[in-house]
Amino acid sequence: MSASAWRRTSSPPPERSLRARLLRLVGLTLMAGAAAAAWWRAPEWPVQTLVERWGMPPSTFVELQGAAVHLRDEGPLQDSAPLLLLHGVGGSLHDWEPWAQALKASHRVIRLDLPGNGLSDAAPGDDYRSETEARRMLALLDQLGVARVRVVGHGRGGEVAVQMALLAPRRVQRLLLVAAAPLAAEVLPPVLRLAPSLPWPQWVVSSMLPGPLVTGALQSLYADPSRLTPEQVERRLVLLRREGNRWALLQQWRQDQSTADADATFARLRLPVLLLWGEADALAPPAQARALQQKIPGSRLQLLDGVGHLPQEEAPARSLAAAQGFIEGR
Question: What CATH number is given to the structural domain containing 86?
Fold first, then answer.
């Protein structure tokens, strides 16, 4: 066989073949990444562009420890123990809109975008630990001249509410915890379990927003996804584009307490507590609510049939009806 024929029929050396395959894989990965970046690219918006839609009266902005906080304070000022409504991860004061509209006729209702959420500035020093958040809420009450409150907390907002009750037991009259158990790691998709631990560059977190994934995640929080309105999806997506919110969301995930620590914290509560839960909550299953009830002395549990992780949005009238007696001290 001639040398030229041998060159035509022989295979490339194994190391060259492997290198070529690796280069192709890297190239395909970069192309896929570029396509995803182009598809999911969602630059941040300054807060001023969002205020006209989401921050008009009765909204106000107050300075709290050097940060601007978006607040709504409605109802009779003479209420001796106003209601403080705290939203969960990635939420906003708008999550409580149906409840606030129903309650403000007879109760003073204070709700806000927690720092790093909605239209509020990021937390000073990117500190989103629940105890730090609780101290901020107590400082806010001082600014508003409120001595005592009834606190309603959903999800992570419930953790903040619990810390408030432990830090200032004389100031918190009662607690309503809505789907507020620490999230069970085993129910989270692997990508969500892993994501907070990865060293994401801030520019990546702040410039991309996978809309279909966010929509799918919201649908999974409902027992009946058909109840999720386009307006609710749009609001979540738009407010996540507020400057700094996506980075703040990642920091909140990273700083969440462990389940064991949270369980011990719940067990120290000594005040009236109602646990309000959706029986179809896939993120914080009802089994967690029952376990939590055993840890909080004297607590009560109210389960809502056919409701998921967001009772105040999926079934606002029914969830409020289930909670109103407790809110009013009955």
Answer: 3.40.50.1820
pLDDT digits (tens, 9 = 90+) for 166-221: 999 999 999 999 999 764 444 444 445 555 555 554 444 455 566 777 788 889 99
Domain annotation covers residue 260 = yes
284: left (phi over 0), alpha (psi -120 to 50) or beta: beta
Instruction: Report the run of H or E that residue 6 belongs to, with start and end.
Output: helix 3-9
* pLDDT tens digits along 57-99: 999 999 999 999 999 999 999 999 999 999 998 899 999 999 9
Asked whether residue 71 is assigned to any structural domain, the reply reads yes
HSE-up (13 A, CA, CB side) for residue 114: 33
Is 151 inside any structural domain?
Answer: yes
Domain-embedded: residue 261? yes
DSSP characters over 181-250 = SPPPGGGS-HHHHHGGGS---HHHHHHB--HHHHHHHHHHTSSSGGGS-HHHHHHHHHHHTBTTHHHHHH
Domain span at residue 78 reads 48-327
Amino acid 72: pLDDT:
98
